[in-house]
Amino acid sequence: MFTVPFDALLLFTVISPIVGYIVPQRYRTKILGAFTVAALAVTGIALYELYRQVVSTGAVYLPSNDALFASLRVDALSIFMTAIFLGLGFAVTIYSMAFVENSNRTPLYYTLILTLISGMTGIVFAGDLLTLFVFWELMSISSYALVAFFKEEKASVEAGLKFLVMSAAGSATALFGISLLYGLTGTLNFESLTSAFSDTAANVWIYLAALFIFIGFGVKAAVFPLHTWLPDAYSAASTPVSAIMAGIVIGPGVFALAKVFFTAFVSFQISWGPILAVISVITMLVGNITALMQTDVKRMLAYSSIGQVGYMLIGLAVGTQLGLTGTFLQFFNHAIMKGAAFLCVGAIIYRLGTRNLSEMQGVGRKMPLTAIALAISVTALIGLPPLNGFPGELTLFASTVEANMAWLGIALLVNSVISAGFYLRIIYTLVQPVSSPKLEQIKDAPLLMLIPVCALAVLIVMFGVWPDPLVNFAGDAAQALTSLGGTA
Amino acid sequence: MLDLAYYLVFSLALYVIGIYCLATKRNLIRLLLGIEILVNAANINFIVFAAYALPGFVDSKGHSFAAISIGLAGSVSAVALAIVVLIYRHYGTLDSDELKQLRG
Question: Which ipTM value was assigned to this complex?
Answer without folding.
Answer: 0.95
